[in-house]
Amino acid sequence: MLDPTIMIAILVAIGLGAGTLGSMIGVGGGIIMAPALTFMGLPPTQIASTSLIAVTSTSVSSTMAYSRQKRIDYRLGLEMAAFSIPGAAIGAFLSGYLTPESFKLYFGILVMLTGIYVLYRKSILKESTEQKKSALVRGGVFAITFGAGIISSLFGVGGGIIFVPAMLLVLGMTMQRAVPTSQLTLLITSLAGVFTHAYLGHPDYLQAAALSAGAFAGAQIGARMSHSVKEVLLQRLLGLVLIGVSIKFIVDSIFAAK
Q: What would the DSSP string read from start to end of 204-223?
């Protein structure tokens, strides 16, 4: 067991790196923090709840900034949140039933899909100016949002990695509107997940505070560095790292089950 002081320092460093990369590349820091916590050997409930608290802290800052810029579609964001909230509550409850081996397997699959998405994001997310407003289309987005809420609390990654593609590909929104609106939905979803995890007694609040502090500072650093660093290079590097991490998780879970 690590010394508490060393543990806190490591968590601050993880949050700092995740917040910086997440802000620069446009993916949630949770998809970086949760794998790091998994490598530290924490139980699934603690990984999900600790990471989700840090995700919430950064989404507060982002939502406030986008609100000042008047770029958030509040009606859509709140509608999506209405469907993601029950999903987030379910995900928090389900996290208590995962063994470390099954957590690594399912999380490894999610991380691999995310790595592929990061690598090919520009070709996948081609913006469309054609708004799609039919009831069937919006219903499909809300169903996806419910699933994203479950994934958000189950693994502690936030739902932004799903919210944004859904808005772009299904609703035909632009990045300028989808990303800010996603942050509002993510904030509400993460809060619902955090409250449910707290009710179940999952979080270690000291560890969560250290991770959150690092992530919040990292998000500010990443925002400032984003104009001077080649995003494509970082995007490819992160995508390859995530795929590599996912393979290790899946292999570990398979061998542990034998």
A: -HHHHHHHHHHHHHHHHHHH
